[in-house]
Write a structure and sequence with these properties.
CATH superfamily of one domain in chain B: Methylmalonyl-CoA mutase
Strand content of chain A: 15-25%
Radius of gyration of chain A: 14 Å
Oligomer: heterodimer
Family (chain A): Belongs to the methylamine corrinoid protein family.
EC number (chain A): 5.4.99.1
Structural class of chain B: alpha/beta
InterPro entries (chain A): Cobalamin-bd (IPR006158), Cobalamin-bd_sf (IPR036724), GlmS (IPR006394)
Pfam family, one (chain A): B12-binding
Strand order of the largest sheet of chain B: 1-8-7-6
CATH architecture of one domain in chain B: Alpha-Beta Barrel
Shape of chain A: globular
Number of helices of chain A: 7
Distance between the termini of chain A: 20 Å
Distance between the termini of chain B: 52 Å
Number of helices of chain B: 17
CATH class of chain A: Alpha Beta
Strand content of chain B: 5-15%
Largest sheet of chain A: 5 strands, parallel
GO molecular function, one term (chain A): methylaspartate mutase activity
Radius of gyration of chain B: 22 Å
Shape of chain B: globular
Order of helices and strands of chain A: EHEHEHHEHEHH
Number of strands of chain B: 10
Chain lengths: ~150, ~500
């Protein structure tokens, strides 16, 4: 069964280049990609994840308001009974160049992985393979431990 | 169904009455008084005349702050210290979303605190009188630059307020700027803007209109940009616009940029009615800038050099602080001076670039393919044809956030750094043209020892800010094996 990944830019953000490239890369790597595009609300992410029984939800944000936009997102997913791996990536904080601090902030919000804007699509694919246990190198059981 | 037909006087009046109720300042818009005000302006503030009679590329920056006094000071600085020929007034984001109430709050906070709480000048809130005070106190022609899908009230207020040039259009301010918002609706809204400009023009007050050429600002293939300029030009001409400045954003390959600007001017004159005066504007690089002022000046310098060879009528300049967002007025003026230095040093040299004619011929053929597809989709009606062609993907813009466009087309640079199309989607293009692009991209893939892939697109998007033109693989990320194990330092 193909792995389904939800992709979108959260909040009022209209930066589309990153998810366009990610969409291409994930599709080429065999993922079933549901790209919600720019200016996607938390509710739209949740609805799509539920509808497509998503394995992973990938949130993009480039305009610096990610922390506000993601408040309560994981609580919403929990209420909707969505058990998907969640990633966030992009320019996640304005004027804050300590990425470790940014990572901690978003891990605390509930994201499984946090990526900076320099991340390549291949790194995301490798992470998904590892977290979802779909790499040929890793046993299915690894997912439980992740 | 929306068609490319001129609005009647009754329709113009009806929309005018309705739109002026959207915010209290609309009530002060009076057409006859506005004509009298425009006629009172001195010759050196008549935008279209200054632009159309220039004998060298004129320079114009971007700039907008919320308070009137600050905007006067900013524009005066750019005119005096940057020697800008034409000045801008960039409108804030709330106004672009028609959120005049929020713009008012921001303006009042700015007046109280002195802080720039808005990212531009809220012209609707300043109203007709505020706009005229700006026009009176600044000693050069000023254009309204914005990004507003529904710019009807903004146009009504700023035209009455004395502005004689207005950027944007139904496609170029829709597709790159919004997610939702149908083209039928933006075409209808811009028919009003253009008809209003036409009404002034018929009374002897020429309103210059400038479709936004760079679109998404990210590796847009020249023929796509030019086709959209021609469409917006045709729509505007139908409504009576007689001064049109068609735009194009620098891609960074000098041969392709010179060829594109020449094709833009030639096709503009060919496709638009004879009574329209067509001029061209070249936007310095609109993609990501290097995070270093010295290197950013290099990018700006290449733009100035290209402009000196291609000789557009106008150049929109960038500042060396582009990377960090809104520049200081000093940096903005520096971008103007850097550009002027390059243009004035190069413009009198007779530089012959190999391959420009061929590239121009290719761009023209591609543009004709797109224009023919639009014509066929609309049975000869450019408004319907544009809507239908975007719907089918026959016309498309790379990296378009809008649901109105497929956004399936993906560009990549060839081995010479020219922007080609890597993923065509449903774009209407002759097969032999697709083969030419494919062959050029294959050359690059061979040089780099990797397959053509989205990875080239991603690398190209970042290349100029990384200090190169073409996103070649570097030693550290040359591996294309998706099962490699690197990158953990960045991943969580």
């Amino acid at each position: 069964m193909p792995t389904t990944v939800i992709l979108g830019v959260i909040g009022s953000d209209a930066h589309v280049v990153g998810i366009t490239i990610l969409d291409q890369a994930l599709s080429a790597a065999g993922f079933d990609v549901e790209n919600l595009g720019v200016q996607t609300s938390q509710e739209e992410f949740a609805a799509a994840a539920s509808e497509h029984d998503a394995d992973a939800v990938l949130v993009s944000s480039l305009y610096g308001h990610a922390e506000q936009d993601c408040q309560g997102f994981h609580e919403l997913l929990a209420r909707e009974d969505i058990d998907a791996t969640t990633y966030i990536g992009g320019n996640l904080a304005v004027g804050q160049d300590d990425f470790e601090q940014t990572r901690t902030t978003f891990r605390t919000l509930g994201f499984d992985r946090v990526f900076d804007s320099e991340t390549t699509p291949e790194e995301v694919i490798r992470s998904l393979e590892r977290d979802l246990g779909i790499s040929t190198r890793e046993a299915e059981t690894d997912r439980v431990q992740a | 169904m929306i068609r490319d037909e001129r609005l009647t006087a009754d329709e113009l009046q009806r929309i005018d009455d309705h739109i002026r109720d959207d915010w209290p300042t609309g009530a002060a818009v009076d057409f006859e008084a506005a004509i009298a005000y425009h006629e009172s302006l001195p010759a050196h503030k008549q935008f279209a005349d200054v632009l159309e009679s220039a004998d060298r590329p004129l320079l114009q920056p971007r700039a907008g702050v919320p308070r009137l006094d600050d905007q006067v000071n900013l524009l005066t600085h750019l005119h005096d210290e940057g020697a800008a020929d034409l000045l801008p007034t960039t409108i804030d984001s709330y106004t672009r979303d028609n959120e005049y109430g929020k713009a008012q709050e921001g303006l009042e906070t700015a007046r109280e605190s002195g802080d720039a709480t808005l990212n531009g000048f809220p012209a609707v809130n300043h109203g007709v009188e505020g706009c005229r005070e700006l026009i009176d106190r600044v000693d050069a022609p000023i254009e309204v630059r914005h990004g507003t899908p529904d710019a009807r009230l903004l146009a009504a207020v700023t035209f009455a307020g004395g502005f004689q040039s207005f950027e944007g259009g139904p496609i170029s301010y829709n597709i790159p700027y919004t997610k939702e918002g149908s083209l039928a609706q933006t075409i209808e809204h811009w028919q009003y803007v253009d008809r209003l400009a036409g009404a002034y023009t018929e009374r002897g007050v020429t309103i210059n209109r400038e479709p936004f050429g760079p679109l998404t600002g990210t590796l847009v293939p020249p023929s796509i940009a030019i086709a959209i300029m021609l469409v917006e030009g045709k729509l505007a001409a139908t409504q009576g616009v007689r001064s049109l400045t068609l735009g194009y954003g620098q891609v960074g390959n000098v041969v392709q940029d010179v060829a594109a600007l020449r094709a833009l001017r030639k096709l503009g004159n060919e496709y638009l009615p004879d009574e329209v005066c067509v001029t061209t504007v070249f936007h310095e690089w609109m993609g990501g800038f290097p995070p270093d002022e010295a290197r950013a000046n290099g990018v700006i310098g290449l733009g100035g050099t290209t402009a000196a060879i291609a000789r557009p009528d106008k150049v929109i300049t960038k500042s060396p602080q582009e990377f960090q967002g809104v520049p200081t007025k000093e940096a903005n003026a520096a971008g103007l001076r850097t550009t002027r230095q390059l243009i004035d040093m190069v413009v009198e040299q007779d530089i012959v670039l190999d391959g420009v004619d061929e590239e121009q011929a290719l761009i023209e053929r591609e543009t004709r393919c797109l224009m023919d597809a639009i014509d066929a989709h609309g049975d000869g009606d450019v408004a319907q044809g544009t809507i239908e062609a975007f719907g089918s993907g026959a016309l498309d813009v790379p990296f378009a956030p809008s649901d109105a466009a497929e956004g399936a087309v993906l560009p990549a640079r060839d081995d010479d750094g020219r922007v080609r199309i890597f993923e065509w989607g449903e774009l209407a293009m002759d097969d032999d043209i697709k083969e030419i692009h494919g062959a050029r991209l294959a050359d690059r893939a061979e040089t780099e020892g990797r397959k053509q892939s989205f990875r080239m697109v991603a690398d190209d998007v970042d290349a100029i800010s990384d200090g190169k033109l073409i996103g070649r693989p570097t030693g550290t990320d040359a591996g294309t094996d998706p099962r490699g194990d690197g990158g953990e330092s960045r991943a969580d």
